[in-house]
Amino acid sequence: MDTLKIKIRGARENNLKNIDLxxxxxxxxxxxxxxxxxxxxxxxxxxxxxxxxxxxxxFPLYIRSRMPYxxxxxxxxxxxxxxxxxxDQRPFxxxxxxxxxxxxxxxxxxxxxxxxxxxxPLALSSGYSFNDPSGMCPVCEGLGSIVEFDLNKxxxxxxxxxxxxxxxxxxxx
Length: 173
What we know:
With 173 residues, this protein is α+β, with helices and mostly antiparallel strands. 24% of the residues lie in helices and 9% in strands. It has a domain at 1-86: 3-Layer(aba) Sandwich (Rossmann fold). The chain has helices at 39-56, 61-64, 100-103, 107-117, 151-154; strands at residues 5-11, 19-24, 77-79. The longest helix has 18 residues, at 39-56.
């Protein structure tokens, strides 16, 4: 069935020379090839940009005018494309609270959606942020786990300091 494939026709971005491509939908697809073969041109400059334009079409002009703009991809047609989330190729440099949602920058939109349409909506979207004290879990402080010291693993209470009671690495008599 044709709707089970993303169809790209006549892609001419960067080093792509009028290529046609069918990509299976609902499957993880990897693009592999030698440097300069057009992998990034297909994924980032054609599919991601076409998906972004498709997504922007649902917003009113006022909102679109405030969003980052990229010219439409140089392609004859892209069919059966759903919204794509692109994770950048750069090394990840987040913090302990970073998630796929924060890396892809979809979390602000999700928080806004929850703040308006949740079963118990909140006036501020920060109420759904694990980085904001008003939205983070009071027990784990938004980290998803609790870190506690186990003094029995740090100190041998049967020994004196001269007998190497401190069990932590880097501590010696």
